[in-house]
Amino acid sequence: MEFWKENAKLRLILIAILFIAGIAATIAGWRLTGQMMGLGIMIVGVICLLGALWIYNKPFERPHKKKV
């Protein structure tokens, strides 16, 4: 899919938002050490960081070849 290659500005904005939100959530959750809510916030932060990484890598995907 060429969507992520064609919309570089959108990709950059989404990556920046997810990265900042992920770092902020991870740090906020880390401050709640010993509480279950802190762990949940940190997991959400890691998911945001993984989402930013996924969007970053999406344009570099190779097309899959169909096996016959």
Describe this structure in words.
With about 70 residues, the chain is mainly α. It has one domain. About 70% of the residues lie in helices and about 0% in strands. It has helices at about 5, 10-30, 35-55. Helix 2 packs antiparallel against helix 3 (about 35-55). It is elongated, with a radius of gyration of 16 Å.
List the helices and strands and how they pair.
Layout: H1 3-6, H2 8-30, H3 36-57
In short:
By secondary structure, the chain is mostly helical. 72% of the residues lie in helices and 0% in strands.
Task: Provide tags for this entry.
68 residues, 72% helix, single chain, mainly alpha
Question: Radius of gyration, Cα only, in angstroms?
Answer: 16 Å
Average pLDDT value? 89
| Integer count of domains | 1
Uncertain parts: none
Major β-sheet annotation: none
Order of helices and strands: HHH
Global structural class: mainly alpha
- Distinct helical segment count: 3
Total beta strands: 0
How would the global form be characterised?
Answer: elongated
Amount of beta strand: under 5%
State the end-to-end CA separation: 22 Å
Classify the helix fraction into a percent range.
over 70%
